[in-house]
Amino acid sequence: MEPERWRQIDELFQAALDCDPERRAAFLDSSCGGDSSLREEIESLLASSADGSFTEASAFRDSLRLVEKTQSLAGRQIGSYRVIREIGEGGMGVVYLASRADQVFEKQVAIKVIQRGLDTKDVLRRFRSERQILAGLDHPNITRLLDGGTTEQGLPYFVMEYIEGEPIDKYCDAHKLRITRRLQLFQTVCAAVHYAHQNLVIHRDIKAGNILVTSEGVPRLLDFGIAKLLTAEPGISDRTVTELRAMTPDCASPEQVRGELIATASDVYSLGVLLYRLLSGHRPYRLAGKMPGEIERTIREEDPEAPSAVIDREEESGADGPLTPQSVSEVREGSPDKLRRRLRGDLDNIVLMALRKEPARRYASVLQFSEDVRRHLQALPVIARRDTARYRTVKFIARHKAGVTAAALIALALVAGVVATASQARVARAERSRAERQFNDLRALTTSFLFEFHTAIRDLPGATPARKLLVQRALDYLSKLAEEAHGDRQLQRELAEAYLKVGDVQGNAYEANLGDPAGAAKSYSRALKISNSLVGSDGNDTEALRYQARSYKSLGEVLPVLGNPDEAAADLQRAAGILEPLLAARGSDNELRQQLASCYQDLGDVQGHSGLQNLGDRAAALRSYQKSLALYQALAADEPNNSGARRGMALLQIRIGDLKEARDDLEGVFQSYFSALQIMEGLSAAEPTSAEDQRRLAHAYRKVGGIQEDLREFKEALRYYDKAAAINESMMNADLKNYQASMAFAISLRWSGDLLNRVGKRSAALGKYRRVLEILDRLAAGDPQNVVVRGRQSEMLILTADLFAQNGQVDESRNMALRGLAITRQLATRTEATPDELSQYAANFLTCQPAELREPAAALQYAKKALEKSGGTDSDGLDVLAQAYFETGDVGHAIEFEEKALKLLAPPQPNQPDSPTRRKVKAHLARFRSN
Q: pTM score, two decimals?
């Protein structure tokens, strides 16, 4: 609209405001004459000023204050650039195309200059804020800032890259991009917005016109003119920004049009509007011709139709002419029916979730929004749809059509067999032989088919829902079979085997599982009860003894997760005590050898855990690991192609390396970890589809990265951490309900974040920590009783709070710390808490930020408990206890316990530096002595 028109509207609007309400109609009749559009504009402004909605009278006066378009700067020089021509207006300024004027090199740029008449104090601050925001962003899909300054007329300007391209919606339509390609392009835009959010910037004006796609098909995000920093912007209040209401109405979120405080959820909403347009050709709402108050009401109250439902809508005012079902569809999927089918379901739900009125019910982040699009493209279940068994089954079939077809044929054959069996049972119900055949069919279906099917799908990405359904059905069948098992030894053995396998699927900590350790313990206990009964009636039954040993071993693997390490160690020793004589009697039995090796490895894991009250320590753990390694090495020598033995060797090298690290033998640690990595890389190359091998390879990468960090090879360390995280993320995304995969990804991200924080890259570290918390929050919500998850969650909250404090974000730091301390208090009351856990709780109370939240007395209480349980042999626990004494003012005890901690740490090898642990303890000791 031309400035003259604005002046006319402004003058009449102010005059109408001064009139008595009953005389306004007559005033407008005489003032507007036959200009109906002029009268509509003034009436809408009067209505809005009356109810305070969308465009307030004060906001109108601020934004329409005698705006005079800046005289064209074409041909003039600005800084080192000569202006060629005007290329557009956006936000608060005019944008010009310019080129270098000093002939140093050839380069075309875009220069944004604030418009004369808009150079008010608040707008100038906003303009400079945009310049500062762009200066802090460096992303391949965000326009880069090149220069800045002030013109001869005193108007601020900045120089940006000149992006020659088309708005993303016009580009997609002009190139007739299919829906899949549009979604991929949209994901790239999401990556740019997510990067801005990670750098604490909200764009607040995401629309097609602010996203240009180059001729190479690369989208670039423009115009941060009304962007908002999540941290405070000096001199710019949220109220000022709200009153200006500089936004594009049909892309604005409900909270934006209401003038409320804006968060990242507003950008999620605007991205939802953009995706709606890219997919359907239409906008979520019909806003054309509506008055401001009507626009606000529509955005606040009306729910948009699903994209697939508007394909048949015809509109006269499309961006490039009338929109018809055929014109929209032919540039997307070819026909309205095809397009409607393509959008119906996942895409409808994804878009509508992003467009929810309540910010808390949208996607939690742009990353999560983009991740749901990726999951749709890979035929994985999306979080925007209700998680039903039918929906996950459909998705599973879409990803594995060939395998499922084969399985369906088998299932049909089985169903046919079961139907035939049922028919025979009805005909011959009185005949005992046929009744027994029916029972045996049920028995075979339960103990054979179900677990053969489980083995076939175990390593398939996304198979967790199918495995969960299998477990539920298996437990139903097993309970029926158990009622008939009395006196039938073979059936009892089959039941023991079945319960062991069900327990593995439910929650075995050493395999991909459903995250139900309590359910696993129940299944293992049932297997133990059955095997004990078999051994009790025949102590020479070798098969029964094997089941008994496996039951004890399985319980020993799951009980530490439930907080019972002592009981776990006792069960593992019982298992070893059964397996050793069996192996001695049958030395050539490699299956027994592998079971015993695995049992010793598990025992070493528990013995190395400082939670044991009456058993072992790291020395005992090392003895168990060495026994296990010798068994695996002998097995690999007998069977060179035995991948299980090689996996065991790799894992044992890592375990032994861990113990060497506790003794600060860094070179020895590196050798052990690197040996493990070489084995796992070979196994992964031989079996790239093995989920277990991929998981262990990631573990090896993380371990090698850790020792590289200890050796101060930070670049190499981060490279290995990133390799581990890439594998873990892929496994987690393939199956979000795989607890083990999610935890592994969280750990890899945590290690990367710790290193980035250590080298001063706090912004990048904060991004990693936030992703860790997202994962832990999801896992904790799914299993609130899992003390491992809750413990890591509390620790990460304290760490993230510290990072916020370093950035000066005191409120965010306090909120994070309070959450972390609340969880710590809940966990610390557990009588079964281990020394490691108690030391971590104490550290939380000692290190939380802001400092006034710290509780040295509570820290001392839990550090003392940790010392009592560990017997004083844990250097980390002694270090925490010493710090707690120091913070409570007892310097003498602080020095005493820090000296004990130092004595437990072996001195470095000749010509080797102190380990990070020794350096930390020595630094604390020096600080205590100086006081």
A: 0.44
**Could you confirm whether 566 is annotated as catalytic?**
no
Query: Residues in the chain with pLDDT < 50?
Result: 1, 3, 51-70, 229, 231-246, 318-319, 387, 389, 391, 428, 430-432, 434-435, 438, 449, 610-616
What structural domains does the chain harbor?
Answer: 3-51 (no CATH), 77-161 (3.30.200.20), 176-385 (1.10.510.10), 784-930 (1.25.40.10)
Nearest to 877 by CA among 919, 818, 913, 836: 836
Burial of 831 (0-12, 13-18, 19+ CB in 10 A): exposed
Give the C-alpha separation, 747 to 730, whole Å: 14
Q: Over the stretch 752-776, which tens digit does the pLDDT of each residue have?
A: 999 999 999 999 999 999 999 999 9
**Are 576 and 582 in contact, with CB atoms under 8 Å apart?**
no
DSSP 8-state code for residue 790: H
How far is Cα 836 from Cα 834, in angstroms, rounded to an integer?
5
Per-residue pLDDT, 443 = 52
| Cβ atoms of residues 172 and 182 within 8 Å | yes
- Give residue for tokens 């002694």: 878
Contact by Cβ (8 Å): 196, 208: no
Query: Are the C-beta atoms of residues 654 and 703 closer than 8 Å to each other?
Result: yes
Phi and psi at 262, nearest 5°, equal: -105, 140
DSSP 315: B
Cα 794 to Cα 778: distance, rounded to the nearest angstrom: 14
Given 173, 205, 441, 665, which residue is catalytic? 205
Residues 6+ away with beta carbon under 8 Å from 224: 130, 133, 134, 137, 201, 203
